[in-house]
Amino acid sequence: MTIGRPGRVRIVVPAYDEAASLGAVLRELGRSVPHEVLVVDDGSTDGTAAVARAAGVRCLSLPCNLGYGGAVQAGLETALADGCDVVVLFDADGQHPADAVERVLAPVLAGAADVAIGSRYSDGRPYVGPLGRRLGQRLFSGLTPLLTGRRIYDTTSGFKAINAAACRAIVETMFLDLHMETIVRLNLLGFRIAEVPVTMSERHAGVSMHGLSSAWKYPTKTLLLSVVALFDAFLIRSRTRRGRTNRSEGGSGT
Q1: SS3 for 112?
Q2: Which of 41, 124, 132, 251 is the most buried (most CB within 10 A)?
Q3: Rounded to an integer, what distance in angstroms lies between the CA atom of residue 78 and that of residue 40?
């Protein structure tokens, strides 16, 4: 993408049983941003797809529930196939402020970052939320300097702007769940990651995917995926170095 030149931007809204909140989210996006919106209906049973279509928004309906990571990857793949330059991931539950989309997009459109995270705490604000999520967030924020060499304050934010190159790196690996393990992998592969301070709200309606059981399941799963992402990134870097060495040696032959 040409630095400083806004490319084709798509807002991808993964949604699972979010009919109660999705309509208000889409109306707010329509008032606040000029970019096209794609709702990824992740096998919902409550009419989520009907709400999206009634709002005049394109909806990709998955045949079954793939989970958040699968829904996001489906949205990224569709955006790449359509030639989009930047994708903004935006939750369907009303927590993300639509008027912050352009601020989160800005560093990516300017060529200053490959991924920009809408961060709840990068300016020093404490996070108020469920105990399990708070503990997980503190753990992951503390681990990112060890795994990547830099501090990422909000590793669990679903509000992200991602350029096409980073999108391709995400969709080529199916084990990602689009949280800390994705940040670790992209950072180790050389993608530039920025955080943009954003104030978020509580969900409008429905039930969070982070229930009581996720207080231990989610951190455990994310830690395991992060270890896999770490080794995967090292393997890719090793293959890349070997390929460059082989080309160099081949080019110097007589």
Answers
A1: coil
A2: 41
A3: 10
pTM, rounded to two decimals: 0.78
pLDDT tens by residue, 174-226: 666 677 788 888 988 999 999 999 998 765 455 555 444 455 566 666 667 76
Q: Are strands 115-119 and 193-197 parallel, antiparallel or unpaired?
A: parallel
Give the mean pLDDT of the chain.
82
CA-CA distances (angstroms) from residue 21 to 26, 28, 94? Answer: 9, 11, 6
DSSP state of 10: E
Q: How far apart are the first and last CA of the chain?
A: 38
Secondary structure class of 144 (helix, strand, coil): helix
Amino acid at 243: G
- How many whole angstroms separate alpha carbon 179 and alpha carbon 5? 28
Q: For residue range 81-118, what is the model confidence (pLDDT) as tens digits?
A: 999 999 999 999 999 999 999 999 999 999 999 999 99
Is CATH 3.40.1000.70 the classification given to domain 9-249? Answer: no
- How far is 79 from 64, CA to CA, in rounded Å? 20
The candidate with the shortest Cα–Cα distance to 147, out of 37, 228, 45, is: 228
